[in-house]
Design a protein that fits this description.
3 helices; single chain; 13-stranded mixed sheet; elongated; two-stranded antiparallel sheet; alpha+beta; 220 residues
């Protein structure tokens, strides 16, 4: 009887381990992320509003349903409440970076971007210089302990759009790309874009804590 038990265990254990391992496997939709805005840092001063976004984006950036390798950058927007002629920004700290801001007519703000090896967390100190003025101020992340990760938000979108995902899947291979952006309005939201190879896009607005879909739109 003991020999039978040992033999049974020897034969079934590898199968059991394989089954358990197989159950844990699921399709890696995160491998198809072409853009991720994972954090936003905000501050409001008497003279301006400041936003820093942590962005991981494919290069080249295209609406083609194909996710290319991504690079990490921070994008800074400063909206002055009075007209200025020039301005610079410096993010202070151990990895200090910054430079001259560029004015954008389309948004009536000042913009700067730079590649980084690590995104900031929690809170940052920022120095803004314009004309003959200067201000150093702290900007705080909008994320809380309840904010979903971009990957978790993507999972919620995939579950909510099973028909869309299945239509873009051939022989168990997904043909499309995802764009996930953390947004801040009255509270935190996630935008999730599901982009097909022909550019057709399903856009979802998710609650950033529950992952519930609040709005849906399709565009060519």
């Amino acid at each position: 009887m003991k020999k039978f038990a040992v033999l049974f265990t020897a034969l079934t254990l590898p199968l059991l381990l394989f089954t358990l391992t197989s159950c844990k496997r699921s399709y890696d939709y995160a491998a198809h992320l072409s853009e991720v805005r994972s954090d936003l840092f905000l501050c409001h001063a008497e003279e301006f509003d400041f936003t820093l976004a942590c962005l991981s984006r494919e290069y080249p950036y295209a609406q083609d349903g194909i996710a290319c390798p991504r690079t990490d950058t921070v994008e800074i927007e400063v909206k002055f409440k009075e007209q200025v002629q020039s301005a610079t920004v410096t993010v202070l700290g151990e990895a200090e970076y910054g430079g001259e801001l560029s004015y954008r007519n389309t948004k009536d703000d000042w913009y700067y971007s730079v590649g980084v090896s690590k995104f900031p967390e929690g809170q940052i100190s920022v120095r803004i210089r314009w004309e003959d003025s200067e201000r150093e101020i702290a900007a705080t992340s909008v994320k809380t302990e309840h904010t979903l990760t971009p990957e978790a938000a993507l999972d919620c979108a995939v579950k909510a759009e099973q028909n869309t995902i299945e239509a873009l899947t051939v022989n168990k291979q997904f043909f499309g790309e995802f764009r996930v952006r953390l947004l801040r309005r009255d509270k935190n939201y996630y935008y999730v874009g599901i982009v097909a190879t022909d550019g057709h896009t399903v856009s979802l607005l998710l609650d950033a804590e529950s992952g519930n879909v609040l709005a849906r739109r399709e565009s060519a």
